[in-house]
């Protein structure tokens, strides 16, 4: 198991934003988001698609500290709050390695990963399992939830129930985005 990709240049992280550029609301241009990270002193900054995914390198701080810094600075600049999940490159590597549904990894619109703010309790997980009556399947591993939605996320009634049933804040990405971010983190770590 390799630890976070760190060197004297710093550690590679990914920031996953929720609730920006959805339905024409809370518009944040990716070029502006990239500049925002650079102005905060981060390096090797790269963004991926409009939902708000940023790979960056930080000289100091861990994911929790960086989350607080970024959320406060983001709200100050854009005037609204976006929940941000910050994870190191090692977390992304584990996320891909631990995928419980490898047979659907080739269908990225049907496989989604949620970065959760914390690991759900057994009670919270049980409550969610009771709502999962098919055709979806899900599995939670620590602070990640894997969802296989055979008909896609848009048509999944269960996917809409996840946030309010689990009550653990999180943000979802399809498998294509997960793999793209891992690839970008690997390049940043090179």
Overview of the structural elements:
The chain has 190 residues and is an alpha+beta fold. The protein folds into 2 domains: 6-92 and 179-188, SP0830-like domains (Alpha-Beta Plaits, 2-Layer Sandwich), CATH 3.30.70; 93-175, Alpha-Beta Plaits, CATH 3.30.70. Helices cover 36% and strands 25% of the residues. It is built from 6 helices and 9 strands. The protein has helices spanning 30-39, 63-78, 89-97, 122-131, 157-166, 175-188; strands at residues 6-7, 10-17, 43-47, 53-58, 84-88, 111-116, 137-141, 144-148, 170-174. Strands 1, 2, 3, 4 and 5 form a 5-stranded antiparallel β-sheet that branches. Strands 7-8-6-9 form a 4-stranded antiparallel β-sheet. β7 (137-141) and β8 form a beta hairpin. α3 (89-97) crosses α6 and α4 (122-131) packs antiparallel against α5 (157-166). The protein is globular, with a radius of gyration of 16 Å. Residues 1-6 have low confidence and may be disordered.
Helices, strands, pairings?
Blueprint: E1 6-7, E2 10-17, H1 30-39, E3 43-47, E4 53-58, H2 63-78, E5 84-88, H3 89-97, E6 111-116, H4 122-131, E7 137-141, E8 144-148, H5 157-166, E9 170-174, H6 175-188
Antiparallel strand pairs: 1-2, 2-4, 2-5, 3-4, 6-8, 6-9, 7-8
List its salient traits.
190 residues, globular, DUF1697, Alpha-Beta Plaits, 2 domains
- Poorly predicted segments: 1-6
**Main sheet makeup:** 5 strands, antiparallel
Which structural class fits the helix and strand makeup? Answer: alpha+beta
Taking all Cα atoms into account, the compactness measure Rg is 16 Å
Overall pLDDT, averaged? 92
Write down the domain tally. Answer: 2
Write down the overall geometry.
globular
Which topology of the largest domain does CATH recognise?
Alpha-Beta Plaits
Strand share of the residues? 15-25%
CATH homologous superfamily caption of the largest domain: SP0830-like domains
- SSE sequence, one letter per element: EEHEEHEHEHEEHEH
Per DSSP, the total helix count is: 6
Determine the fraction of residues in helical runs and give it as a percent range: 25-40%
How many β-strands, per DSSP? 9
How many angstroms separate the termini? 18 Å
CATH C-level label of the largest domain: Alpha Beta
Question: In the CATH classification, which architecture of the largest domain applies?
Answer: 2-Layer Sandwich
């Amino acid at each position: 198991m390799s630890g976070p990709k760190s060197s004297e240049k710093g550690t590679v992280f990914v920031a996953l934003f929720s609730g920006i550029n959805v339905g024409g609301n809370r518009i944040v241009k990716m070029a502006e988001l990239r500049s925002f990270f650079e102005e905060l002193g981060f390096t090797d900054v790269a963004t991926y698609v409009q939902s708000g995914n940023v790979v960056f390198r930080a000289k100091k701080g861990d994911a929790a500290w960086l989350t607080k810094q970024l959320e406060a600075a983001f709200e100050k600049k854009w005037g609204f709050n976006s929940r941000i999940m910050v994870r190191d490159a090692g977390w992304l590597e584990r996320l891909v390695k631990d995928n419980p549904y490898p047979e659907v990894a080739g269908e990225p619109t049907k496989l989604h990963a949620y970065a959760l703010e914390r690991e759900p309790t057994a009670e919270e997980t049980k409550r969610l399992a009771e709502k999962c009556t098919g055709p979806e399947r899900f599995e939670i591993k620590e602070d990640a939830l894997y969802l296989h939605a055979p008909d896609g996320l848009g048509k999944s009634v269960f996917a809409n129930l996840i946030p309010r049933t689990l009550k653990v804040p999180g943000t979802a990405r399809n498998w294509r985005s997960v793999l793209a971010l891992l690839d970008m983190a690997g390049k940043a770590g090179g």
